[in-house]
Amino acid sequence: MDSNNFVSSKDKRVITFVIILFLCSLFYTSVLLDYTLTARFTLLTFSLSVFVIFIKDARDTKSSINAITLCYFFLGLLSFMSYFWAYNNAEIWFTAAKIVSSFSVFGLSVYYFNKESLTLNYFIRYAGLIVFITLLLAFIQLNEISLFQDNQNILYYITSINSHKNLVSSFIFILLPFIIIGNIRSENRKKHFYYSSLVILSVILLFILKTRCVWIAFFVMLFLFFSIYILFLVKRKTFLRLFFIVFILCICSLLLLFYHTIATQFHSSTVTNADSLIERLLLWKNSVKMIFEHFWLGVGGGNWQIVFPKYSLKGIWRCDEMNVTFQRPHNDFLWVWCEFGVLGFLLKLIVSIGVLFPAFNLLKDPLRSSKSKYEVMVFISFYLAHFIILFFDFPSERAEHTIWISVIMAYLFSCTSGYY
Q1: What would the pLDDT profile of 245-299 be if each residue is shown by its tens digit?
Q2: Which of 79, 194, 62, 72 is nearest to 127 (CA)?
Q3: Are 277 and 393 in contact (CB under 8 A)?
Q4: Angle at CA 99, nearest 5°, toward 94 and 102?
Q5: Which residue intervals of 27-86 are DSSP H helices?
Q6: Would the CA dihedral through 92, 94, 99, 101 be positive or negative?
Q7: How many other CB atoms sit within 10 Å of the CB of residue 141?
Q8: What gap in Å lies between CA 205 and CA 123, rounded to an integer?
């Protein structure tokens, strides 16, 4: 009796935690200028604070303390310490709060993945619901516009639960592994149909929205999945043959899918328009100058946007003609190095790569089932491919992206526990 009650209460705590993340991924308010960014991070910070205070399990996480969580902790500590050398120390608080929030999501997720066998199922269920809501709103908005208008900016009206169509694409990409694994774990036709439909509609929407870095990440993900499959699950004698076949199929798929776009929309399409790429290259060039000038500790959290104009805005047409200012360099790696120096960059790199080692150890374990290995391969492939998005954008700026990437990292880091 006591055991059953204990298990039931443990489940309720996990569900409460997952529901908090679910609500923080959807929350918005029209009172603020950016109705998703500040609103969601504020709710996430407040909700996690309350959760940690009132839920005993959330405070009993000693088993989750290890080299990776310590590096993550020191990255958060560094973000607060940058107060002492930042150009504008008022800017560091929001950036530091975002890093601490992502660390909290990661740490609590690791704890629950290690302690409760149904944790991933709860994440899958609510991730699927978020994808369903995202797709519903996106297709309603698509129905209200004409995709055939001669206007390359028409797709920017598709924002769904996010504030930009590129954020919709990247967020769906991050959630895709959950619904794919939901499909793998489906035990009846209704669930199988539900998750299969979500996967198919998600992929369709990704290609409609024409977000280049997500398109590239998607094909990289496919290549990584088949490469990992060949490396870990295929017998040695067929390795080279299968690898060659997969590689050729990926290349052919890319050529077939991009041929029409390249041939007919080279000059006007949002897919092949080079303006934003040139803009990013200029942002990166000046960010590198900032790195060399503030190599060790950076300019302080949130201070990239303040220091950046020092290195010239010439050639960045939106700054020249539209009075637009940039808050991030459209590259998460450069952003971390600019604001927290090489020390912060190395801490971030250790955390990002370190979570993969347990996952690859599971793939090498002959006692693990093929099903569990397939699930880990899906997460590894999407996680590694999302670095393409990090290289061209700044998903770490957004609460919903941060939440679910932190969950994926926690799963990869915890998958060698007995439950997975």
Answers
A1: 777 777 677 666 655 554 444 344 444 455 677 788 888 999 999 999 999 999 9
A2: 194
A3: no
A4: 125
A5: 37-54, 56-59, 67-81
A6: positive
A7: 16
A8: 22
Residue with tokens 């100058």: 289
Contacts of residue 336, Cβ cutoff 8 Å, sequence gap at least 6: 344, 345, 348
Q: What is the pLDDT of residue 129?
A: 98
**What string of DSSP letters covers 185-215?**
T--SHHHHHHHHHHHHHHHHHHHHHT-HHHH
Q: How high is the pLDDT of residue 225?
A: 92
**Structural tokens at position 352:** 């990002």
| Contacts (Cβ under 8 Å, ≥6 apart) of 73 | 103
pTM: 0.90
CB 183 within 8 A of CB 196: yes
Q: 254: Cβ–Cβ under 8 A, 6 or more apart, which residues?
A: 219
C-alpha 348/C-alpha 313 separation (Å) is 28
Residue 341 neighbours by CB distance under 10 Å: 21
Q: What is the rounded CA–CA span in Å between residue 20 and residue 119?
A: 14
- Provide the pLDDT for residue 24: 96
Could you give the CA distance from residue 95 to residue 118 in angstroms, rounded to a whole number? 33
Residue 86 sits at φ, ψ, to 5 deg, of -70, 150
- Are 320 and 373 in contact by the 8 Å Cβ rule? The answer is no
Which amino acid appears at position 248 of this protein? I
Q: How does pLDDT run across 122-143, given as a tens digit for each residue?
A: 999 999 999 999 999 999 998 8
The neighbour count for residue 180, using CB atoms within 10 Å, is 22
Q: Radius of gyration of the chain from Cα atoms?
A: 22
CA–CA separation, 247 vs 400, rounded Å? 33
Burial 223-236 (b: 16+ CB within 10 A, else e): bbbbbbbbeeeeee
DSSP 386-405: HHHHHHHS-GGGSHHHHHHH
Which pLDDT belongs to residue 262?
44
